[in-house]
Structure formats: structure tokens, C-alpha cells
Amino acid sequence: MAKQPMLKFVTTERQMPDKRDANVRNKDFQEIYAEFADARAKEQAARCSQCGVPYCQSHCPLHNNIPDWLRLTATGRMEEAYELAQSTNTFPEICGRICPQDRLCEGNCVIEQSGHGTVTIGTVEKYILDTAWENGWVKPAAPARERTESVGIIGAGPGGLAAADMLRRAGVQVTVYDRYDRAGGLLTYGIPGFKLEKDVVMRRVKQLEDGGVRFVMNCNIGEDMSFDDIREQHDAVIIATGVYKSRDLGGPGAGAKGIVKAIEYLTASNKSANFGDKVAEFEDGTLNAKGKKVVVIGGGDTAMDCVRTAIRQGAESVKCLYRRDRANMPGSQREVQNAEEEGVVFEWLTAPAGFKGGDVVSAVTVQKMRLGAPDASGRQRPELIDGSDYDEPADLVIKALGFEPEELPTLWGVPGLDVTRWGTVKAEFTTGRTALPDVYAIGDIVRGASLVVWAIRDGRDCVEALLKDLDAKTAVAAE
């Protein structure tokens, strides 16, 4: 009888890839985890219990067939594991690196619930795809037949790129428009290199280009090109702009120099550290934490990216203010742990009340909080503790309070593009169809600031509907 290759969770402990020493990694922007060795990857994949009802799969937004590609990895069938992983996920190696697995697949692993420690799903996924790239298994799109229809995609972030890939594989002609000089959106300029090295993103962009996707960069819709012009040039348009308008923060002194937005800070850092670009506001110190007392306001993953970036830039000190406690923060607990190891100090149950220093910030006035009764979301509401204010010295304050949608109907001069009361584009669930004929919308511009994996899911779902719509038009025209 053949030896059982799986269910090794009883005899084999959970192990992550080796993590570089905190005092070494906090000085560079390289990824912090080493690669899995082949034997270790197989060993960890073999811990999967092969559940009859795989909660890891059902809690993955893409419903990746996780148990099967874990089994294929454990038994050394790596090319098949790659093909299976790629079949449901356009960018598995990116999701393996940046998905909050502790809240999704791994957080719902059955053996985790039984006290044995979750399967390291994300790191195995990363290993599968890195192996596939090394062996040349990842190929550009090569459709069986070319179609005459053309689709324009506004936004080269994860949702737009996922849609572009699916459309090209179906033979549709695709042009992607983006305001930045490089494709990738937040994958390129929002997420730091220590979580996602940029060559990982750029090789996917090149794969899309090699497969026939056309990119038009440095293109601001409404300025360099009108939305109507794009609609005229294509049979359909997908809006995948994401949400880049930063939530602001008021209070006394909020307009002082030295108080900056997270997206501007991270973009400048990524351009400088990962691409070697000359960024004026980085060079003159405006968006550079070197030698400064840094305070980051916020508790999400963007805040974690900011504090860990500031450490690497050589900040004198880095503190993070968050109005709830550690258990109630929205960001990944794994990221908090990494930040603490690297020298970040978290001030839980604190919120800014204003800023000191006049024209240039010198301190944040901090209020201490306590958790009260639950609010509408079920989370305990922070309440102010009277008389608890104190001043936290700061030379650089980074606001990482989340993002809101830009006013696209106004910016683009398209009043017929319906939006919700939150400013997100109104689009049909799963299909992405909007109120405008042949115009679709996906990702954060529809659902609000969310995860990369959800943007990929939206892009793939939208293309399925769009292709059906194109086929229906072709059928009608042929009658």
C-alpha cells in the first residue's frame, strides 16, 4: 500500500520560512522571509488534513483549490500545482506574499482550530509560483483566436491587470490606461518592497505586454484624455481606478508642514528605494523620515507599511497611534509583530487631538482612550478619557487613516456615471455593469478600500460577464 503523503500535521510542526534578523532587515527594503527549500515546502504542504469541507478554500475570495495544490506540492508534482493555482488566481505569487492569510485561508484552517497550527498556505503558494517562474512554466497569453473587439481598462492596479490578463487569454484587444509612469498601482507604489519586491510585479507587467496588452502610462483621464474619447475607441470600458483620496484629519495645527499623507509618503519611498528614481520631496526631506521623530496615525495595513518604511529610512524613533487596542485593530497581527521586532512602538488607545509647532509640526497632542459599548459594527467604541492629554514630540506625522473614492463623475465630466452615497461607483454585483452602456467597474472604486485579492476576484468576475455581453452582441449582429 502506498504511503499516505498527507495529514502530517500530528507529527510535523508548523514552520514558516526563516525570517531575516530584525536588526538586519530593518535597514533595507528586501523581503523579510527567505525562500522555502524544496523539502521544507513539501513537508509543510503535507501537513494539510485534506478536509471534506475545506474552509480555507471557502474563505478565500478567489476560492483557490488550496487542498489540491497542497497535495500536488507534497507529492512533488510542481508544474501541476502551478497550473491549478494559476487557474483561479491571476497573481498567486503576489497573493502568497501580501494576502492577510491569518484573516482568510489560514485563519480558517481546520487543523488550526484543533490546536496543531495552521498550514502555511501563503508561503507554499509563493513557493509554487516562484518555482514556476524559475522553470519557465509561466507563459504570456496566447489565445487560440484573436477577436476584433477592444476593451479599455482605466487603472493598472491588481483589478485592472487581472481583467486585462483574462481578456487577452480570450483574444480580446486590450489597452490599459494609468496615471502613473509604471503599471501595478498600489502593488508598485503603495506596498513597500520588504513585503513585495518590485521585480515580482514588473515581470507580471512584462508578461502582459508580451501577451499583447497595450499600456498607456502617465495618462490622467479628464486631463490628458477624456472618458468619452476612451469609450469611442473601445467596445467596452472597465473602470478600475482604485481609491486614492486620503481621509483627512482636522484639529488645531493640522495644516502645519511635516504632516503628510500616507500614499504620498509610500509612493516617494517606493520610487526612491525600489526604482532609484529622483523624487524631489524625498531628496529635500519632506517625505523622508531619516533622523526624525515619526508619528504614524492609524491602525490598518497602510499604517504598518508606513511605520516599517520609516524605520528603514533611519528615523530616530517611530510611534504608531491607534484609538483602539491591539485586539481590535484592522491591520494584520503578523505585520504588527514584524513592526515591533523592527523597533516600532505602538501607543494603543490613543488618538490625535491636534498638533503643536506653528508652521512646522513639533508634536502631536494625544488623547488617551478607553473602549466602551459596541458600535453599529459590533466593535467597542473608543471613548475619551478626560484630562489625559499629552504631547508626543514629532518631526514627521504620517496620516494613514484610509482612503476614499475620488469624485469620478465630476473629474471626468460624466454625470451619467452613478455613484453611491459613499462616492463609490454603482455597479452590479459580480458582473461590474454600471448605469452606462458597455461600462463596467471593479475593485476598490466599487467596494471601497479593500484587499488586493478582492480586486483580482472582481476583475475575473467582470470579464466573465463582459465576454458574455460581447458574444451576445456578436450573435445579434449575425442574425
UniProtKB/TrEMBL annotation:
Record has tRNA processing as a keyword: no
UniProt GO MF annotations: 4 iron, 4 sulfur cluster binding; metal ion binding; oxidoreductase activity
Domain Dihydroprymidine dehydrogenase: 25-136
Pfam families: Fer4_20, Pyr_redox_2
Organism domain of life: Bacteria
Keywords assigned by UniProt, alphabetized: 4Fe-4S, Iron, Iron-sulfur, Metal-binding, Oxidoreductase
Ranges of residues in domain FAD/NAD(P)-binding: 151-459
Protein's recorded name: Glutamate synthase, small subunit
